[in-house]
């Protein structure tokens, strides 16, 4: 092959094919491991005494919480959870840590540090399962090196409301994208011989009144949206555990929902691992019969339900005895499938922070989304003067808060306390990673005079912008577990700051560090907008690399940016006028009656809702610009397979996210992401993309199974969910099948 472009394209095709094959093999191997582990677990349960059968079913949060906190076991590690082992049977203790973004900081109690991945939504903006695997493998390796063998990762709740305080932790608004990405991350975590969870099961769509909000949704809508994301994630990742959620579903707490845990997860899906509770989410002992296998962080519950009380029930009732045996079998299945007993994690392992930092930086680079560019980007390295304004950008990048908080060496660069009482107040604070965008910008624009203004005084920022060739405003929107944001504006007067700076300097670039979508009343006044999300441990260099073109931006939005809250299914956040929530997510006073009506949009979450309403968002799902151009042509659909060609029609290398959408089914308009693939191409190079369409994306859930009507199905390639190419029709037969 003499043509270097062709060689590049073929090499990439082989690499993508190898990734797909290895992922499929990993899933098959994990399924075999789970089956063999289940048989071994059943044999172990037969050897257990009555006392031993309530060892693995409950555990503490090994942190100094104050009050009646039990003494910390000698082998426990300060972190999220601890479940004792059974030495006689060679069963290791479960030592658990948060979370999907890295090993949790837990307020510095362990006096150690970890590598922070970018936020979940930033990871998802890469649309890259292989990168998700690398990120999962990296944070899993650090958890193992610290002695943890369970990582509370795998957040996959769909983004039904962008005001949700945990939007930054989750991935996307689409079940296919979310499920494929979280499955890859889970595989990466579990490649370290540790257990990963998938969470929070299910329909955990807001933090306001999170322990009280009762979700109203039809089974069909749930199965076609949130539950489908979990199902795909479980299929792809084979997690050892599922963590149930705080909220209620149909009046039952999610951690005591017979429908969710027994009927859907264990019976319909045949899940063999165990269900652990979220911390403080267990209402009573009856949760065991409803499908809960393990009570986590028991100090936070009204009582220890899964200890002696459970033993007494099992001693006198065959139904409870059988359930207790099943609970142990499921926990042991996860332990054996992940090799926790044969490959024990031990504290003191070596961590290559330099190498892990580069993984975090690559994730940040691929997740940064270029939203607007009036030919102002990439910036010239020959620039003589650059004004950097706001966002603590002289020394740090923002991170989301709560149980997922991670910090690297030296701890947080900036901490802004928010308030609250007790241990939770330590988790609720605006914290910034030590990664300076200003230093990284100066390193690339070596001859430029780079100055900083914090943005507190608009007049000061405007004066500095007038004196500079380029003004870069770093705008932040902080999100945290435990609190929802009241609206989608930028807080602290930042919208006014951006408008004033843009009026003073036409070359104003806005870099957004946000947990999710924000409104942009100043959009038509600025030259460029870069969505950097919470970019993690190496956010500064990643942002600078994109701004100056060393990295060609390739992120695509994994969620819709509304033009205003009025476009949302619930323009007013459920519970916003109900009662002021405290920092544990529950109400401080008043009624516990709070309903979230998800039947309004049903399974039409995010871009599907916008398509149904005919509404135009600020930026659509799947949107993102590049410093080069791409064409996707020649779409052919045969049965449940699609093929087309992607070509880089520009003058520099870059990555395109090829997106295939269902647009009509048997005469009924439907907008569904049916497939995607990230493709990296040299200038002028092209590649054939082959996609297999999951039939569940085309189907409805009816009468206990999936149903596809016979008829014409129309597909189109999309730059995003709104910008679609020439439609292609294919006739498909009727089909019905069980989950």
UniProtKB/TrEMBL annotation:
Belongs to the glycosyl hydrolase 3 family. GO terms for molecular function: hydrolase activity. The lineage of its organism: Bacteria, Pseudomonadati, Pseudomonadota, Alphaproteobacteria, Sphingomonadales. The keyword Cell membrane does not apply. Pfam families: Fn3-like, Glyco_hydro_3, Glyco_hydro_3_C. Gene3D superfamilies: Glycoside hydrolase family 3 C-terminal domain (3.40.50.1700), Glycoside hydrolase, family 3, N-terminal domain (3.20.20.300), Immunoglobulins (2.60.40.10). It comes from Novosphingobium jiangmenense. Residues 656-721 form the Fibronectin type III-like domain. This is Glycoside hydrolase family 3 C-terminal domain-containing protein. Keywords: Hydrolase, Signal. Residues 1-26 form the signal peptide. It comes from the Bacteria. InterPro entries: Cellulose_deg_GH3, Fn3-like, GH, Glyco_hydro_3_C, Glyco_hydro_3_C_sf, Glyco_hydro_3_N, Glyco_hydro_3_N_sf, Ig-like_fold.
């Amino acid at each position: 092959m003499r043509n270097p472009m062709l060689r590049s394209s073929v090499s990439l095709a082989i690499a993508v094919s190898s990734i797909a094959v290895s992922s499929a093999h990993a899933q098959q191997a994990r399924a075999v491991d789970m089956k063999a582990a289940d048989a071994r677990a059943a044999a172990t349960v037969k050897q257990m005494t009555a006392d031993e059968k309530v060892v693995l079913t409950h555990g503490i949060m090994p942190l100094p919480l104050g009050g009646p906190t039990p003494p910390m076991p000698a082998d426990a590690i300060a972190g999220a959870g601890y479940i004792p082992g059974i030495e006689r049977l060679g069963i290791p203790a479960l030592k658990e840590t948060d979370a999907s973004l890295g090993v949790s900081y837990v307020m510095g109690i362990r006096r150690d540090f970890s590598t922070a991945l970018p936020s979940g939504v930033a990871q998802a903006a890469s649309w890259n399962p292989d990168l998700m695997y690398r990120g999962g493998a990296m944070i899993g390796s650090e958890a193992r090196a610290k002695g943890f063998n369970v990582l509370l990762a795998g957040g996959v709740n769909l983004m039904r409301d962008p005001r949700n305080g945990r939007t930054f932790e989750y991935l996307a608004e689409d079940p296919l994208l979310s499920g494929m990405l979280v499955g890859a991350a889970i595989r990466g975590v579990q490649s370290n011989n540790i257990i990963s969870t998938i969470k929070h099961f299910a329909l955990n769509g807001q933090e306001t009144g999170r322990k009280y909000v009762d979700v109203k949704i039809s089974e069909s809508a749930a199965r076609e949206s949130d539950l489908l994301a979990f199902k795909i994630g479980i299929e792809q990742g084979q997690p050892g555990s599922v963590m149930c959620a705080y909220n209620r579903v149909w009046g039952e707490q999610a951690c005591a929902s017979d429908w969710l845990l027994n009927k859907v997860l264990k019976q319909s899906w045949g899940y063999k691992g165990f269900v652990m509770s979220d911390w403080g989410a267990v209402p009573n002992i009856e949760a065991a019969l409803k499908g809960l296998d393990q009570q986590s962080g028991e100090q936070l519950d009204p009582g220890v339900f899964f200890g002696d009380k459970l033993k007494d029930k099992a001693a006198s009732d065959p139904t409870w005895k059988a359930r207790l045996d099943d609970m142990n079998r499921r926990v042991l299945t996860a332990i054996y499938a992940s090799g926790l007993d044969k490959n024990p994690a031990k504290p003191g392992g070596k961590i290559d922070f330099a190498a892990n930092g580069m993984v975090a930086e690559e994730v940040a680079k691929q997740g940064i989304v270029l939203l607007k560019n009036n030919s102002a980007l990439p910036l010239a390295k020959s620039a003589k003067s650059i004004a950097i304004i706001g966002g603590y950008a002289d020394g740090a990048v923002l991170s989301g808060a709560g149980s997922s908080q991670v910090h690297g060496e030296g701890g947080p660069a900036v901490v802004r306390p928010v308030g609250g009482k007790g241990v939770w107040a330590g988790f609720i604070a605006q914290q910034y990673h030590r990664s300076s965008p200003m230093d990284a910008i100066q390193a690339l624009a070596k001859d430029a005079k780079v100055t900083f203004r914090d943005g507190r005084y608009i007049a000061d920022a405007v004066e500095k912008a007038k004196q500079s060739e380029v003004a870069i405003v770093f705008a932040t929107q902080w999100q945290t577990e435990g609190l929802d944001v009241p609206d989608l504006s930028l807080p602290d007067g930042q919208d006014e700051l951006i408008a004033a700076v843009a009026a003073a300097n036409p070359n104003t670039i806005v870099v957004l560090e946000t947990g999710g979508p924000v409104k942009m009343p100043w959009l038509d006044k600025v030259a460029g907008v870069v969505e950097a999300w919470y970019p993690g441990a190496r956010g500064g260099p990643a942002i600078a690399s994109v701004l100056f073109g060393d990295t060609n931006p390739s992120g695509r939005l994994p969620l819709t940016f509304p033009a205003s809250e009025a476009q949302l299914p619930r323009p007013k956040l459920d519970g916003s006028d109900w009662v002021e929530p405290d920092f544990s997510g529950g109400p401080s006073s008043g009624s516990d009656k709070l309903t979230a009506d998800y039947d309004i949009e049903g399974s039409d979450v995010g871009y599907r809702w916008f398509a149904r309403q005919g509404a135009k968002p600020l930026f659509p799902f799947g949107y993102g610009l590049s410093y080069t151009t791409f064409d996707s042509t020649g779409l052919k659909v045969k049965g449940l397979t699609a093929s087309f060609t992607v070509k880089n029609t520009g003058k520099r290398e870059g990555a395109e996210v090829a997106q295939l959408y269902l647009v009509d089914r048997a005469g009924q308009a439907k907008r569904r992401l049916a497939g995607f693939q990230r493709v990296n191409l040299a200038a002028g190079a092209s590649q054939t993309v082959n996609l297999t369409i999951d039939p569940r994306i085309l189907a409805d859930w009816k009468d206990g199974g999936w149903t596809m009507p016979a008829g014409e199905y129309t597909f189109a390639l999309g730059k995003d969910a709104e910008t679609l190419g020439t439609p292609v029709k294919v006739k498909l037969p009727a089909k019905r099948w069980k989950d």
